[in-house]
User: Fold this.
Amino acid sequence: MREVADMVKNVDKKKNKQTKKPPEPESLKKLAGVYPKLKTYGIAVAVLIIAYYGYLIRMKTAKLKYFVDPDTFYHFEIFKEAVKHGIPSYFAYADPPTGIKLGGSLGLYVIPAKVYNLVFSHLGYSELDFFKMWTPLVGAITIIGIYLLGRKLHSDWAGFWAAVFLAFSYSSYSKTYSGNARGEAPFLMFFVFAVLAMAYYLDEGADWKDLRKAWKKLLWGVLFIVFSWLFMMSWDGSQFGLGVLIAFMGLHPVILFTFGRIGELRKFAYEFYPLMLIVLLGALLMTGIPLIGYRPFVIFALEVYLAIVALTAVMLFGEKAGLDYSDKKHRFGTVLGIGLLGFIAAYAYFGRNLWKFLAGAYQSNPLYQTVAELAGTNWGYVKDVFSIHYVNGAGQDGMLYIFSLVGFLILLSRMGWKLHRGDITGYKEVFLATYYAAATYFLWSAVRFSFQASGAVMLLAGLLLGEVIILVEKMEDTLGTKAMYAVVLALLLLPLPVMGAKDMGRIADGMAAGEHVPQSWQDTLLWMRNNTNPLDSATSWWDYGYWIESSLLSQRRASTDGGHAYDRRYILAKFFSHSGNDGEVDFEAWGLNYLIVWQSDIFKFNAISYLGGAITYGEYKNNPMFMPVGAQYGSTIGFDNRSKTYYVAVFYNGGILQYVPEIIVDLSTGSVYQNKQPNVPYVLYVYPGGWGIMAYDRIAFSNFVQLAFNYVDPRNITDSLKLWANFKLVKSTGDVNTYDFTPFGVYRMDVLVNGTASNGTWVPIYTSFMGKGRLEIPEGNTTVPLLGNHTFRIYISAFGRDVKDGTLIFEAYNNGTLVSREILARNLYINHLNETPITVNIDVPNATNYRLVLIQDGPVGVLNGPVKVNGKEVSPSFPVAPGESGDMELTAAFKEDYSNVTLALRASIVYYLTPNGKDIYKDNFYLDPYQEIITYIPVKSGMSVKAGDNVIKAHVSVPGDVFSAYIEKLKEKYGDNFVVYSTRLEPVFITEKEYVLWEGVS
Assistant:
């Protein structure tokens, strides 16, 4: 036995000898002493440096003269209004002729305006300089905030890596660089600090009996409320943040209750619920200003809040009423049963609106199928915005999202393990899980939510790396060794953000390399600013509306832009994608003066053609409307002598595909050739130099093609003549054409040379292709003036609007002085869909200039200030509801003095027909849009107005059936395939108005 005992002792000695560790070097002992401070203060300093560098990257585009993002032009205008007026209420330059009442969350403008007025204006910054630095500043502060939040919810390392990744992530950069001042950036900043304040508030102990000792908790509670209001003011999409808080408020108590932590549940309810109630009630009050724009969602959140309070009351006091809370199964069953009943009740109350919280990106109309930001997300997009490494601006790895997903799985595993062991998970883990789950849902709903998701993604990515380093810190080693390993590991991971910083710097340099408003657009809009009336309006495709409205460019009214007059997009698309009668719309109802057409819109023409009803949804998805052809595009134009066929050869996957278009238009000669056996439904336009454009046959001769490329429809010259009569080219940069619009114009003029009007000989003397005309007739090898009395046949194009009770007048001028004025016709009527020429006699004097003028009633003026009814500011495009009345006050501006003016409310409707049914996702779906004026409701007549602003007051009363009766007739006519898109009730001013139909010279 003794031998055995000695043997055991010897073994123990050997074991002890083998496991004995060498003494720790002095350097590691010093590191062990310094490491905690290094981690706490060193990381904080590093984050400040990183935030500053992130700010510098985001400021690179500030050197540009114009903003990068088109929407920012609009936001800058309203920011300036907020600087001057506090809370802005009206913007005159959108949606003419009325302008718009500003809505949404106006805190987006008020907050930076207050910061500017209180601080930066006193430091010498101009409004433009501050506005350019606002979003980079917000981005830098958010980087610091995400560090503090990650540190509070997890660890120093988690906060550090979250901040590093956010600083150099494209998902964050995309909304925080200078020149992109939307609401997402301040929303995320304030949301992060609201959650940070919430965490400190919930962690802070307090003796509520002595409020002086509870000042810290009270301070954090107040900060939570204030930051919550600020993030809700900052952006209409901040419903997301409020929804996360409500979801967290509902989920955490359920977990506490299910696992029997009634005391913690009671403490959470008593501390957090009152704060949320203050947040919601305050937000509800602010929706009336509106600093916060989404009143229905705030009401919905309040109702959900009350439901959670009721559920919590059952959880806290239900046992006293006889409910069985003896174990987890009974408690969870109680929650499940009550939740199910609540859901049924909510669905019965809200119906399909219940899904709006989880369907923020979903829009069930054709317009939103064409908006890129609402496109469904795929891995390629996620990889692009959440990568660490970028090549030529494209994300290569998507590692940030992968890191976050792994971090989320670790978080869920930890929560699950703790719950399995009966250890209740903390609110921090519940909040992180709730936040990430909601952010991921929205991220995969639409690409527009990538920035909103960036906060949660970076927090969970930081959590992953934080977990790895903390795992090292918990190793069974000496403190110095663990500190060394942690530092070494951090240094090994450091190349990830360094790579991201370099790549993001290159992306920023690329964005700052040149102006994002093309030079041709700059030239066009600055020309418009200097050569048109300040009350004029212009339109192009809606993407450029904010450029038109901007005080940095033309500062003219835009018929439709990125956020307003969505109904007009259908009508504008119909005009662009059709020709002839099919493409005529009433532009005068918009107060339109100028039309701008950009050749580059060929790349947006699938959406334009689809919204305009020229193609089906299947064609929109699968058939490009335009395809460039040439060596630089991997294709060539050829001609087969044997078959006498033009074709396009495309080099594809090592082979050659041969496309035979229907029609070939040679733009160098004007010749038109038709292939006998085409195999693709395209028209080939051939340019000098051997390159060309293939245009889809349905839109190949559309108004857009004719106006953008200065080309006529060879199949119907008359329709082209009419188009050029109503749209006169006044400015061209080569790729951007600007047209002066008039609803009535002469497109052809003939003169009778012998015989009678019915059986004589008519000689054409003018077409609208000529521009200004000449009153002369060919005679031999020359021309002679048409002086004296002659019979003319005049062809008038009425574009989208009939001529009614018009008076046609001929005027002659000598060097600007009127020398003759002759009435040619009275009570003139021309149907714009079936125009016929009129025959008149004109006594032509010898003069330098001539004009044909149409006098008839038409709209004049624009609104130039807010509209009030009974003292309350209302929507200027719908000031009074049907069946209601009131005293209206408005400001109207006119270019000149007018007498006998009538103020009326113009009731109009935009609707579309769906001949193949309403399922917008079927390939054969297409729409046919219409804009119609229903009636004019007289308000005040016999007025005289002066040039400039006029304040007008009148009593207004609107019949209750002004829309309903008309809509019912349309429903009877078209049945189920009829969709009302919008209705308008606009104040307009009608008076006798002059339209110049034709101008000539001697």
